[in-house]
Structures are given as structure tokens and as C-alpha cells.
Design goal:
Layout: E1 4-8, H1 21-30, E2 35-41, H2 64-77, E3 83-91, H3 97-107, E4 113-117, E5 120-122, E6 129-131, H4 136-146, H5 149-165, E7 175-176, H6 196-208, E8 212-216, H7 232-240, E9 245-248, H8 261-268
Parallel strand pairs: 1-2, 2-3, 3-4, 7-8, 8-9
Antiparallel strand pairs: 5-6
Helix pairs in contact: 4-5, 5-6
Length: 270
């Protein structure tokens, strides 16, 4: 069985750990990985102000070349043992499509692999943004912004749809990240509505455009979530309609590598 983890962070993540690259790599080898992609959070687009209090959502532009160089050196060092990809997790931010395309046009040639994710939702008032997965209180601010919990879900999935359909140039990532991240705090904010139609529409859009899907185990570790992004029932549906799936631990420490790995591979090889 060929094992790939396509969503791994690094010591360049300002909100992660200081675990060195080689600690991740050695753990990946121990777990039997054949391939891994470091997908550090790309610098946020020019003109966008990080809304989280510590302003630590992504690495700085000044760090980007050092990050690329570090991963490339590791590719060579471990080439006979494990395939290592140079990657980024690109934030899709509504209203900053042009700036994101400019970033990709400048640096996209360095990438072997990449993910396009939604973390920030544009608010209707005062042209501000909120990071939906930062904290329960930030998520509660979104509920206040959109009046109801379902209003937040509707806005999130509209933004996911924009990420799928927007033209970000020839280096736009072809893998869509953790499509049910809006469920991260679901045990604090339980739904009184069925969100399945949002997920189905998203899967159909991904399939229609020939994109791939990040199947992310990080939600299993979140005490207010405790499920894959997306849950396995939707992974089954995605597989049944032919969407290519890539497991992602979304690890922010070496210890988190492999979360949900066995469940994912058991499912897709069933």
C-alpha cells in the first residue's frame, strides 16, 4: 500500500511547534509513509491584515525562500528513503483573489504540491474578516455577524464554492482543503439543521472541475469536533463519484502525524 500524507506543517508555522523538519520526516518513515508534502501556510496576500490577535496565521514573505530551500535540501537527503514534496497551504480569501494569483504567479514554479483552503470569512459589516477556526469565541462572533449558525455555514460554503470556481492562474492548487472545517466547534455550537446539502454541492463542484480533496484527520484531535474533515460518510460518497482523495494529517507537530491514517486507508481500500 502506497501511503501519502499531503498536508503537513513545519517549524515555519508561527502557530505550530518548533519541531524540526527531520523530526517529522523520521516519524513519517516510522509510520511507513512513501510520500509526504510539507504544506506550510503561505504568506497572506498583500494588503490583507491577519485578524487573529497574535497575527500568526501564516509565515512571513521574508521566510518563504528559506522554507523552500530547507525542504529542497531534505528532498535530496532522503530521496532514496521517502519522497518529500515542496508545498504550501494557500488561503483563499474572498476579495483578495488578484493578490493571491500574484503570489502564486511569483512562487508557484517552486511547488510540487499545494492545497487551497478557507480559514477566513469576509463579514458584511465594515469589510472585516474573521478566522472561523481560531477559537470558539471567534466562531461566536461569526454567528453574531450572520445572525444564525446556519448563516455561518451558508457563508462558509459560498466561500468554498468561490475557492473552487475562482481563477487564480496556472498555479492554482488542485486540491481543496478540509471542506468541513466549519464543524470544528460543533459540540459547542450544535446544528439544528441538516448541512448535508452544502457538502453534497461542494463534492459535486469539486468533481465537476476535476479537482482533488484533502481528507483531513486533524478534526479527530479537536475536542469540540472529533471527526474527519469531511466525515467518513462523505469520504465514501466522494470516492463513489470518482473524486481523487489525498490523506492529510494537517500535523502541526511530529506527534500528530498519522492521525486517522489507518481509518482512511482502510476505508478507501475496502
Amino acid at each position: 500500500m502506497y501511503i501519502k500524507d499531503g498536508h503537513i506543517h513545519s517549524p515555519y508555522c508561527p502557530h505550530g511547534t518548533t519541531d524540526p523538519f527531520e523530526k517529522y520526516i523520521k516519524k513519517a518513515i516510522h509510520l511507513g509513509y512513501n510520500e509526504m508534502t510539507f504544506t506550510e501556510h503561505a504568506p497572506l496576500p498583500k494588503g490583507f491584515k491577519d485578524p487573529v490577535p497574535q497575527m500568526d496565521s501564516a509565515m512571513s514573505l521574508e521566510q518563504l525562500e528559506f522554507y523552500f530551500q530547507a525542504v529542497k535540501e531534505l528532498q535530496v537527503k532522503y530521496e532514496k528513503i521517502i519522497k518529500i514534496n515542496v508545498g504550501l497551504e494557500i488561503d483563499f480569501i474572498e476579495g483578495f483573489e488578484e493578490e493571491t494569483e500574484q503570489l502564486l504567479n511569483k512562487w508557484g514554479h517552486e511547488l510540487d504540491d499545494a492545497i487551497l483552503s478557507v480559514h477566513f470569512l469576509k463579514c458584511s459589516r465594515a469589510n472585516r474578516y474573521i478566522c472561523l477556526d481560531y477559537s470558539p469565541s471567534a466562531f461566536e462572533s461569526l454567528i453574531d455577524e450572520y445572525s444564525t449558525l446556519e448563516g455561518v455555514y451558508e457563508k462558509y460554503y459560498r466561500t468554498i464554492e468561490l475557492s473552487i470556481t475562482s481563477n487564480l492562474g496556472k498555479y492554482k492548487p488542485n486540491r481543496i482543503g478540509h471542506i468541513t472545517l466549519v464543524r470544528k466547534f460543533q459540540r459547542r455550537f450544535p446544528r439544528s439543521f441538516d448541512d448535508s446539502h452544502y457538502i453534497i454541492n461542494t463534492l459535486n463542484s469539486v468533481n465537476d472541475r476535476g479537482l482533488t480533496l484533502d481528507i483531513n484527520g486533524a478534526g479527530l484531535l479537536k475536542p469540540l469536533c472529533r471527526e474527519f474533515y469531511p466525515p467518513l460518510e462523505w469520504v465514501k460518497m466522494a470516492a463513489s463519484i470518482g473524486i481523487p482523495l489525498v490523506y492529510g494529517s494537517d500535523a502541526h507537530s511530529a506527534e500528530q502525524l498519522g492521525e486517522g491514517l489507518e481509518e482512511f486507508y482502510n476505508l478507501i481500500n475496502y
